[in-house]
């Protein structure tokens, strides 16, 4: 990662000169000389530092908000700066061409992957209202109007400012400007304690319930009360002297209600103050949106699902030659040949980690036998030309394993995503869905955690590991025993596929015949020609590929097909989504908390959003897995939460939404119970109008 360039020169008592490289709101990279003034902490309780500056190439006054290197290593501090940047960019996109842009700080640029991440704003207008003891009646009306306008604009974006206070409301004598964007939360998310009493609502102070736009109404009312009276209000109810202040009592009486449900919305308050204002704001913002931006591609997604629902399904039952067809054999995860349990070929490791033969018939105690067998392995001799390898016994004793394969080019971050996916399982991520896990082999699992999970969690970039088997095509990574809510146990084996290296061989075809689920990983740097990804492409040495991922096409071409669609379960993942964390609609999904229940409607909504993004910017070639596979969901995920810097992740590797793709696959295979059943999970219920029989050209009926 290229850090921000600082070349400082300091005059006696004067500003420091530096060169800043940053991304503009339009996504372009800009390098500019800047002179920076002295630094202070914007809020004593927050880590961000702030200083005034002057961009010398345009003579533009600015404010830099940044984190020190030490604070940037704190994921919580980075999250605050990310929240502020995401809010500022969202407001810029919505308001830049409207009269309402001045209600908020105007972002000039940002670099959040630098060692010292920062934001640049245009110079603020006015001074903090906290500096005013008592405000005149004329100023009160103007500030009330602008503050309610700001709350309503944020509400239309699904955002709630949780940090409204006299310190974050600026006033220049004519208009207000609302800062404190690091304290913005999405409507409907769980509240977290934020802000200072009495300006934060009682529910927000306690962190109870879900974030509501009326939380900010309480805050605005408290700010206005202080500016009218010169003193703070009560932290839990309306001020006792409210009736003595006619304008406050007439406009904001209900805003002081202890419960959000009893307060007016920002729109209701705004219309009370200026009838029709909310509608005028909504029309102005809607007119500034690019035509069709929100619905672009939605019809294509729904039409694709409709065609999939109407297409005949392939015959059920195992594919000819599939591993474990009727004889109890399973596919060896290393040599990809069929293998069966052989009690005469078992081994265990001794205290020197060397394999020694095991004869289980000599173990009379059933509990001890079960424990020994769980740690035992079987030597596989199915392919005498393949290097020596051993299979954990539990892998061979619970029926046909569910095989999950990651597909994508070598630079897509598959290994990091798969590692974090398995780490999320071992952290208990499946428990809310009624699933339990157990290692197939404790020794192998401990090695996986030691060599893969722990280094990544400690912030190290994982090395590219050469594949095992088929000249690097299929690399077996890990296997777990998953027990569903009904007590059924099934091994789940994870593979990493370098599909671009796949050749048509009997072993390769046998492996693909036995595949149960595929995860196609889309690299946004390769797929999306968005300007703000240019810097990442330059750093990674890659270019946009309009023809899609070669690995996708190679694997899809090799999979057996019995109808218009492939019937293997699949998930497409827009990986490295931290590169797109401020890009709609990724910003909406990436910061969602981990799922604790599967909502098929919400899953399809995410699929629709990702489909729309890829179709609009990447092209249809990148959607080939979705077009070719009958049951396929689409997701956003980030294995690391940020970009690497010299082989490390500065704030550690913070995974986001890494388990959702696997949850979808498990639901499609019936391991997780979902409304409507596994058959309709990815496709949705068939609407009534689709099920009405229509006559075909020969006079018969078809559906």
Folded structure, characterized:
The protein has 703 residues and is an alpha+beta fold. The protein folds into four domains: 105 residues, 2-Layer Sandwich (Phosphorylase Kinase, domain 1); 160 residues, Orthogonal Bundle (Transferase(Phosphotransferase), domain 1); 67 residues, no CATH class; 269 residues, Rossmann fold (3-Layer(aba) Sandwich), CATH 3.40.50. The protein is built from 21 helices and 28 strands. Strands 1, 2, 3, 4, 5, 6, 7 and 8 form an eight-stranded antiparallel β-sheet that branches. A seven-stranded mixed β-sheet has the order 21-22-23-20-24-25-26, sandwiched between helices. Strand 22 and strand 23 form a beta hairpin. Helix 3 packs antiparallel against helix 7 and helix 9 crosses helix 18. The chain is elongated, with a radius of gyration of 29 Å. 42% of the residues are buried.
- Uncertain residue ranges: 1-11, 317-326, 466-471, 694-703
Overall SS class:
alpha+beta
Helical content, roughly? Answer: 25-40%
Shape verdict? elongated
Termini gap: 55 Å
Main beta sheet, described? 8 strands, antiparallel
Number of structurally distinct domains: 4
Number of helices: 21
The number of strands is: 28
Q: In CATH terms, what is the fold-level topology of the largest domain?
A: Rossmann fold
Name of the top-level CATH class of the largest domain: Alpha Beta
Strand content: 15-25%
What's the CATH H-level homologous superfamily of the largest domain? P-loop containing nucleotide triphosphate hydrolases
C-alpha Rg (nearest Å): 29 Å
- Give the overall average pLDDT: 87
Architecture of the largest domain, CATH level 2? Answer: 3-Layer(aba) Sandwich
Protein name: Protein kinase domain-containing protein
Region (Disordered): 1-21
């Amino acid at each position: 990662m290229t850090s921000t360039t600082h070349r400082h020169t300091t005059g006696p008592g004067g500003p420091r000169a530096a060169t800043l490289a940053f991304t503009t709101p339009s996504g372009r990279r800009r390098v500019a000389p800047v002179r920076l003034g002295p630094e202070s902490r914007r809020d004593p309780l927050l880590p961000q530092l702030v200083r005034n500056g002057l961009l010398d190439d345009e003579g533009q006054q600015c404010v830099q908000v940044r984190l020190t290197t030490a604070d940037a290593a704190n994921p919580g501090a980075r999250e605050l700066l990310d929240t502020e940047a995401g809010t500022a960019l969202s407001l810029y996109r919505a308001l830049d061409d409207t009269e309402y842009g001045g209600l908020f700080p105007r972002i000039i640029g940002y670099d959040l992957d630098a060692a010292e991440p920062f934001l640049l704003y245009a110079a603020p207008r006015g001074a903090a209202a906290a500096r005013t003891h008592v405000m005149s009646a004329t100023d009160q009306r103007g500030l009330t109007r602008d503050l309610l306008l700001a709350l309503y604009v944020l509400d239309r974006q699904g955002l709630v400012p949780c940090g409204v206070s006299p310190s974050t409301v600026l006033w220049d004598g004519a208009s207000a400007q609302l800062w404190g964007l690091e304290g913005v939360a999405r409507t409907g998310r769980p509240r977290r304690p934020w802000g200072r009493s009495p300006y934060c609502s009682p529910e927000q102070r306690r962190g109870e319930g879900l974030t509501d736009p009326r939380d900010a109404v309480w805050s605005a009312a408290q700010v206005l009360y202080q500016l009218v009276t010169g003193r703070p209000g009560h932290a839990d109810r309306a001020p006792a002297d409210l009736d003595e202040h006619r304008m406050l009592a007439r406009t904001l009486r209900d805003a002081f209600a202890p419960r959000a449900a009893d307060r007016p919305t920002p729109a209701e308050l705004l219309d009370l103050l200026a009838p029709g204002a909310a509608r005028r704001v909504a029309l102005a913002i809607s007119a500034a949106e690019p035509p069709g931006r929100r619905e672009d591609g939605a019809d294509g997604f729904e039409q694709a699902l409709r065609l999939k629902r109407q297409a005949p399904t392939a015959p059920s039952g195992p594919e000819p030659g599939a591993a474990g067809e009727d004889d109890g054999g399973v596919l060896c995860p290393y040599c990809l040949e069929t293998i069966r349990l052989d009690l005469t070929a078992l081994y265990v490791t001794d205290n020197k980690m060397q394999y020694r033969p095991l004869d289980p018939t000599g173990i009379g105690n059933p509990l001890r036998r079960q424990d020994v067998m769980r740690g035992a392995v079987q030597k596989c001799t199915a392919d005498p030309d393949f290097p020596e390898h051993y299979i954990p016994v539990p892998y061979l004793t619970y029926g046909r394993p569910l095989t999950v394969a990651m597909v994508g080019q070598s630079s897509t971050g598959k290994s990091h995503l798969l590692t974090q996916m398995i780490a999320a399982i071992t952290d208990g991520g499946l428990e809310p869905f009624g699933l339990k896990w157990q290692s197939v082999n404790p020794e192998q699992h401990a090695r996986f955690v030691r060599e893969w999970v722990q280094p990544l969690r400690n912030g190290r970039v994982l090395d590219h590991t050469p594949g095992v088997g088929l000249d690097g095509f299929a690399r077996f990574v890990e296997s777990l025993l998953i027990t569903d809510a009904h007590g059924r146990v099934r091994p789940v084996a994870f593979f990493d596929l370098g599909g671009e290296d796949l050749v048509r061989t009997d072993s390769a075809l046998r492996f693909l015949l036995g595949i149960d689920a595929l995860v196609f990983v889309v690299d946004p740097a390769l797929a999306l020609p968005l300007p703000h990804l240019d810097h990442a492409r330059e750093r990674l040495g890659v270019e946009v590929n309009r023809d899609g991922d070669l690995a996708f096409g190679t694997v899809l071409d090799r999979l057996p097909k019995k109808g218009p669609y492939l019937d293997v379960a699949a998930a497409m993942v827009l990986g490295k989504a931290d590169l797109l964390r401020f890009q709609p609609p990724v910003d909406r999904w990436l910061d969602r908390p981990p799922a604790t229940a599967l909502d098929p409607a919400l899953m399809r909504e995410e699929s629709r959003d990702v489909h729309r993004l890829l179709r609009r910017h990447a092209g249809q070639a990148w959607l080939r897995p979705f077009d070719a596979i009958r049951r396929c969901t689409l997701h956003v995920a980030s294995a690391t939460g940020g970009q690497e810097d010299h082989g490390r992740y500065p704030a550690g590797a913070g995974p986001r939404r890494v388990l959702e793709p696997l949850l979808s696959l498990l639901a499609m295979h019936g391991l997780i119970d979902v409304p409507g059943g596994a058959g309709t999970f990815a496709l949705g219920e068939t609407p009534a109008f689709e099920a009405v029989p229509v006559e075909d050209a020969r006079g018969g009926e078809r559906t």
